[in-house]
Amino acid sequence: MITDSVKIAKSASIDESVSIGEGTEIGEGVVIRKGVSIGKNCKIYPYAVIGEDPQDYSFHGEESFVKIGDNNRIREFVTINKAVGEGESTELGDNNYLMAYSHVAHNAKIHNNVTIANSVQLAGHTIIEDFVNIGGLTAIHQGCRVGKLAMVSGMSATNKDLPPYFMFGLTPAIAATINRHGLKKHGADNDAMNEIFKAFKIIYRSGVSLPQVIEKLKVENFKSAEVKYLISFLSDSKRGIKLGRSAVRV
């Protein structure tokens, strides 16, 4: 269903079985394939392609989807592929900004309030959590997870998970320090930030394995919700994280 208030450029191509919410604008040359749903008040800029077949040899034409929430900005030549697997979906939440030439591969999940700069490449099954910022020309390997309020500098790459609340750079990406500005902006108090910084030093300065890092963090009996979430993230990590010294001296 496409509501009456949707603005669609004449040169856009939209398949049947597409849903677009009120107030959304579709620019020139945009291609939207079957099985795509787009929420309210989004703006899709010229020549973006949404819902094309995934770039994966295991895809055999099964019915899959792209689900996009409200208030998203999707800039020129962005590509968002449908999922692999019957009934599966590639998902984009609310209030996200995807800049020109960025790519969101099959089965990726982008949460809310995420900024993805120009030419960022998100491989299949990646997870990008709330309030993440990813700099231009960065590559995130298949199946990696980037934790909330993380920042990744431009021209970085990772084949490991990137924990929440930290700032990352280089290839392979390594943490530099905590994201103080982002944490303060989103309500973390001084006690929480001090705990996060202490956890950061345990993770990247202890010189021990990830299971040992997790045990060290648990022994500290941190009080803040942020560090409790950080420990949960590390415990649930499927790809692991890059340990060792941080990218800069802090």
Task: Summarize it.
The protein is an alpha/beta fold and 250 residues long.
Overview of the structural elements:
The chain is 18% helix and 25% strand. It is of the alpha/beta class. Among the domains are: 7-125, 3 Solenoid (UDP N-Acetylglucosamine Acyltransferase, domain 1), CATH 2.160.10; 183-236, Up-down Bundle (Udp N-acetylglucosamine O-acyltransferase, Domain 2). Strands 1-4-7-10-13-16-19-22-24-25 form a 10-stranded mixed beta sheet. It starts with 6 loop residues before the first strand and ends in a 14-residue tail after the last helix. The mean pLDDT is 96.
Structural class: alpha/beta
Q: What CATH architecture label of the domain at 7-125 applies?
A: 3 Solenoid
Side-by-side strand order of the widest sheet: 1-4-7-10-13-16-19-22-24-25
CATH level-3 fold name of the domain at 7-125 = UDP N-Acetylglucosamine Acyltransferase, domain 1
CATH structural class of the domain at 7-125:
Mainly Beta
Oligomer: single chain
What are the SSEs and their pairings?
Elements: E1 7-8, E2 13-14, E3 19-20, E4 25-26, E5 31-32, E6 36-38, E7 43-44, E8 49-52, E9 65-68, E10 73-74, E11 79-81, E12 89-92, E13 97-98, E14 103-104, E15 109-110, E16 115-116, E17 121-122, E18 127-128, E19 133-134, E20 139-140, E21 145-146, E22 151-152, E23 157-158, E24 166-169, E25 174-178, H1 180-185, H2 190-205, H3 210-219, H4 225-236
